[in-house]
Amino acid sequence: MSELRWTLPQGAYTDPGVFADDLEHVFARGWTFAGHSCELGPGDWFRVALGRDQVIVVRDVDGTLQAHHDVCAHRGSRVTTTERGTAKAFVCPYHQWVYGLDGCLRSARLMGDTFWDEQSTTAGVRLAPAAVREIAGLVFVCLAATPDDAPEFDGFADAAARHLGPHGLDDAVIVARDHYRVAANWKTLVENNRECYHCRGSHPEFSLSNFEHGTHGDVRPNPRYDTAVAQARARWRARGLATDDVSFPGGSWYRFTRLPLREGFTTETLDGRLVGRVMGTLPDPDVGSLRVVGLPNLWAHANADYAMTTRLTPVDAGTTDVEVCFLVHADARLDDARVDALTAVWRATSEQDWALCEATYAGVASRGYRPGPLSPVVEGSVASFLDWYLGRWPAAS
Ligand code: FES
Ligand SMILES: [Fe+2]
Prior knowledge:
The mean pLDDT is 95. The chain is of the alpha+beta class. Helix content is 27%, strand content 25%. A 7-stranded antiparallel beta sheet has the order 1-10-9-4-3-2-5. A 7-stranded antiparallel beta sheet has the order 11-17-16-15-14-13-12, with helices on both faces. The chain has a 3-stranded antiparallel beta sheet with strand order 6-7-8, with no helix packed on it. A hairpin with a 2-residue loop joins strand 2 and strand 3. The site of fe (ii) ion has 5 residues, from loops. FE2/S2 (inorganic) cluster binds next to loops.
């Protein structure tokens, strides 16, 4: 019998000092999900905030993806004033310094006659770069001290290309984008995502199409489910889809697994029927549901006709912003009723989850909280998340 595992002490969720360390050791030094390639044509940009840091992700006119800290090199103002846009250059609103999409300073008013002559001084006067990568339509940033300090990305990129690539998220369109501000620590949201102990009681819409068994960390034997998985995977393999489980290999930060939906459900909609056209290069609609996790801040389900991505961006110890996006084939033309049909399951499920997380965080932050025991039967994935999280801390390595 394995040793019982417990949730973390209260301060791990509520202490502003721990939150600052989370930003430093978990978010800044690893790869953090930022957004989608399909929103970044030449000149398009969006910004993403992580605690006190804010990064602009932009596609240069030559197609190169760039990321810059949103900090003016003059006196430090934020350069952007909106969430996203299309630009030929970035103009700081304070004193109108102008930066190219590559982050280099293009012009600066009233800086004297010799400013531009002093190349050694002005060479570093630019938007500070951050590391950025994209694969299978997902964009990640790393706020390590220099872009060269970013950790290895290739293992994730290989798994994402094999598993998610056929879903064509790089040639998709976002038909719905929901924003939520959740009154809970980011780890409370991840812990909730990592288990389905709560699904039957809290997610009636999700449970229509999804088996109760089969989630990561659920060790209950279930021959009927195992048979359904084996049969589905044999069909998928025969049509060229990757069916291996990539589950945090070597203690890493990502997971890809393709699982079948319940009989009669082709996608995660209320009636199981497709709403949009089949995406990417998928051979046909029988592809189950590909589940993607990227710690610390991404989970996604990719179905035949749509993908749902959830991005967490921490605000403070007790506040997390969430963006949930729904992507469909770039040529799908969906009216409002069909967008409602497409988003119904995950809109309901997400909002149920935020209510659970807020109720949990209120208890965790209160005087009555003590670390609680995790189920060894269905919460092993919460324990493995906590192991990964604690492994980010320098003292643990
Ligand atoms: S702070 Fe940006 S131009 Fe002055
Ligand atoms: Fe949930």
